[in-house]
Task: structure prediction
Amino acid sequence: MQREARLIQGNQAIAEGAIYAGARFYAGYPITPSSEIAEECSRIMPGVGGMYIQMEDEIASIAAVVGASLAGAKAFTATSGPGFSLMQENLGLAVMGEVPCVVINVQRSGPSTGLATKPAQSDVMQVRWGRHGDQSIIALSPSSVKECFTLTVQAFNLAERFRVPVILAADEIVAHMRESFTAPAPGELEVVDRKKPACPPGQYKPFEAGEDGVAPLAAYGSRYVFHVSSSMHGPDGYSNNSPANAAWRVAQLHRKIETHRDEIVMTRSYYTGDGCDVLLVAFGAVTRAARAAALEARKRGVKAGVLQLITLWPFPDLEVAVLGENARTVVVPEMNYAGQVAGEVRKALGPGKDIRRVNKFNGQIITPKDILEAVM
Amino acid sequence: MTEKKDRYEVIMAGSGGQGLIVSGIMLGEAAMLEGKNVVQTQSYGIASRGGFSAAEVIMDRDEIIFQQVEKPDVVLVLTEEAMEKYQDLAGSGIPVFYDTTLLKPRTGENFYGYPFTELAEKLGHVGTANMIALGVMSAVTGLVELESLARVINKRFSGKTAEMNLKALHTGAGLIAG
Result:
């Protein structure tokens, strides 16, 4: 990885961030606007002793990623709307089997194949609820080329730490945008590896969670022979249909994320130091338009600030509540029709709050002007 | 040459396959060599050739917050469709550069028409037309130093290709100096 400043795309930074985090397996099916991630991985994976496989479709891609992770590799794939839909079933398997992996979803305009080259932020709810059954998920969203790199590293760290799939919910804007970027030096960012079993192979139980709710994970092909099932299972990984076991398992899958909220939920606030009358809650590339709008509003005498949601799921409801409580008005700009994040902001702030939505869903980018109209 | 500004916003528009995005990247890389922050974005349809395509470049000494061009300082257009979209900017004082080999001539202030494609063919490769354009644009507006563009060319290309692009760059700049 070159350490000088380069003008690179978000997609390239994602691929490089994955390598930095220790990813050595990529399986995918190229789709606009994520294709450069596959392209970049096909180029650099072999050089670091990793593997790149172009699969026949997205269902096979996520299946290969789950398998590679269980065999001990840090593994990931990248896709966009239509492909992300196809991945949901095996993502559910990764939740149930507690398989660490990362899925990059570069959001584009839908529904279905929609506007293939145009941006959207309309998969917020699919990221959270796309799979059937009771489950939780971690999702992060970058607003710059630098964050494409650092949040990919963070996504792998969280996946490894909690044995969960993590979604990087990028958008076409950050993915295709080029920015001057200098890659962090080795060791500059923390890299987390999954906990491995310390017990003898005969005593290993792949789903016996320790105090932190996370069980150590051995690798397929090692001396530890173990079973992973998509069906309800006990600590040994074998089928267990007892109500008590099911209740414990479902709660544990949620709890390991809920109880570590402070390690997972990341936000950044701008221009809020002196309090703000108008709070803009934004994520992904739209954060930039929101910042520009807040600065302009301040020039015009309105105390505006921005809360960037770096973590989308679990939702930063406490952070929204703390900053939003004292604001007269909260504005939520997002590139989707229904206000997917605005609904969560409403939940966090209650029915009495003046919450204004700015939605664009025609493939065009939300501008500072669009947001200012709701602020002023 | 006009005085160099801390921030430039540039639009380069035409159709897919004309090399506008690569030109935007090279312009951005040249600005980085001069210590500026750079954001380059693009807009295109689903066709890899043809269809409206545009590259935007913002170069700033400070942090670049919103990533899209809002107040262009310089515009380059390589198709009639792109010209129609941006020609009104000339009226508000923004230089609009265009290729007279490909477009009808425009009269009026702030229109800068040169036969980029014809000159490029004479140099031996039509693909150098954009480098001629960058040479002209930099000489007129002070976007970046020619030396910075030359360094980017030498980084990206070697041998005959580098040579031809350097020739194109100086051909472009020469149109203004002369």
Remarks:
- The helical segments of chain B are 20-33, 80-86, 88-91, 116-123, 129-141, 146-156, 159-177.
- Chain B touches chain A at residues 25, 28-29, 32, 36-42, 44-46, 64-68, 70 (CB under 8 Å).
